[in-house]
Recover the amino acids of this structure.
């Protein structure tokens, strides 16, 4: 089959690889009908996350048709149309029983590597480093789906691929980020990053009852989508001081909750940016946590900082003093996607949201290298790329 594989910094190639096989009775094989490129894939494309190996198949946002099932699979049969969650979860461990699916204890065969970095390992993730399991990803014609009964949701015929594909990751991710803000009537929620995750966090904040939502970015086309399609107010951080502007907008209180939908590769102007880039280049700091710094400083006292943005390791100049003295609540995590499958499919089905609003580019799987390039460089007004294997 054809698959989009990682070969190094800014080097992905669609090559022929062996077809996946059932390895365990709980597996299914899914023939991919649609797959997407995530902001998290850009961290791999920029070679910032360790333990990728040349030839690894990328991709953790995908859906398609079940073409083969292992003997222990109960819920699925050949021909079912499914979306697959990006965390791989067993359904039975301490964490899965509490629906904390991205923390599953049983799905990362290389947990010992992640434990060195994090103390404990999160769940295995498709196409996302050997530290997180070395699983083949779904930017391919076929994929092996372990624990298929737990990690899939069946899709009714009346919904298109584009409406449901993002149940695999970014819609639940934005939604969980907003849910983590414990939104009360009248609340103002500020969201750093108007990428796909930021867009879903903003939309979800409104769905969960926020009164005002403010999106922060520097790309006018992304801010326009937030303004026109979501009704968010927007701040261009290159044109004004973010902290001052947020204080002006909130009568000096600050937003009730701040969402960092930027993560480890924040664009950071000025002296502090040079500091982060130099330290990151010398491997003295793994991330550029500038959106997080601003979010902590701007958040109102007693508010919540919610972090869907991915961080990899050890970061500098995080204002913990502000966090403590302002009594902030901190919420984060890889998304517990399976927990959100049913309620969010319902919201799509009843027309509260059509997640396809983020799609700007549709391409054949073979064009994945072009897609990565456009998405990374924000060229051609690219917000989200969907790839279609033939
Ligand atoms: P993206 O790269 O398209 O979007 C990031 C946006 O942040 C861009 O529009 C960029 O201009 C903006 N930005 C950069 N620096 C900024 C700054 N200093 N202030 C404000 N905005 C700034 O990526 P995405 O797909 O939207 O993903 C966003 C983050 O969410 C990534 O870190 C990704 O890894 C993470 N993510 C996490 C999960 C999870 O399970 N927690 C799931 C999916 C994605
Ligand atoms: Zn993702
Ligand atoms: Zn589990």
């Amino acid at each position: 089959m054809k698959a989009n594989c990682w070969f190094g910094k800014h080097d992905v190639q669609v090559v022929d690889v062996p077809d996946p096989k059932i390895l365990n009775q709980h597996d299914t094989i899914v023939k991919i009908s649609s797959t997407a490129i995530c902001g998290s894939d850009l961290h791999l494309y920029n070679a910032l996350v360790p333990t990728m190996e040349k030839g690894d198949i990328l991709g953790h946002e995908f859906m398609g048709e079940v073409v083969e099932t292992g003997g222990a699979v109960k819920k699925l049969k050949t021909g079912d149309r499914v979306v697959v969650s990006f965390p791989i979860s067993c359904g039975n461990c301490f964490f899965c029983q509490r629906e904390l699916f991205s923390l599953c204890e049983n799905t990362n065969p290389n947990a010992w590597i992640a434990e060195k970095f994090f103390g404990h390992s999160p769940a295995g993730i498709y196409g996302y480093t050997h530290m997180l399991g070395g699983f083949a990803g779904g930017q391919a014609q076929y994929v092996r789906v372990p624990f298929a009964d737990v990690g899939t949701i069946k899709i009714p015929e009346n919904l298109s691929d584009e409406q449901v594909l993002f149940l695999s990751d970014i819609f639940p991710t934005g939604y969980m980020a907003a849910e983590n803000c414990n939104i009360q009537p009248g609340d103002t929620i500020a969201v750093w990053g108007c990428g796909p995750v930021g867009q879903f966090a903003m939309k979800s904040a409104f769905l969960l009852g926020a009164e005002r939502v403010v999106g922060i970015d520097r790309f006018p086309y992304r801010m326009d989508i937030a303004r026109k399609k979501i009704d968010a107010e927007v701040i261009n951080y290159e044109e004004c001081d973010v902290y001052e502007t947020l204080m002006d907008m909130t009568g000096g209180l600050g937003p009730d909750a701040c969402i960092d939908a930027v993560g480890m590769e924040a664009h950071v102007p000025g002296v502090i940016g040079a500091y982060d880039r130099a330290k990151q280049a010398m491997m003295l700091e793994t991330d550029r946590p500038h959106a997080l710094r601003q979010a902590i400083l701007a958040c109102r006292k007693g508010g919540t900082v919610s972090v869907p943005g991915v961080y990899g390791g050890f970061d500098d100049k995080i204002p913990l003093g502000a966090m403590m003295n302002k009594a902030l609540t901190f919420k984060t995590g890889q998304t517990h996607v399976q927990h959100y499958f049913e309620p969010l499919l319902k919201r799509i089905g009843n027309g509260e949201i059509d997640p396809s609003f983020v799609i700007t580019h549709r391409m054949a799987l073979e064009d994945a290298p072009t897609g990565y390039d456009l998405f990374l460089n924000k060229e051609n007004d690219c917000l989200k790329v969907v790839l279609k294997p033939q």
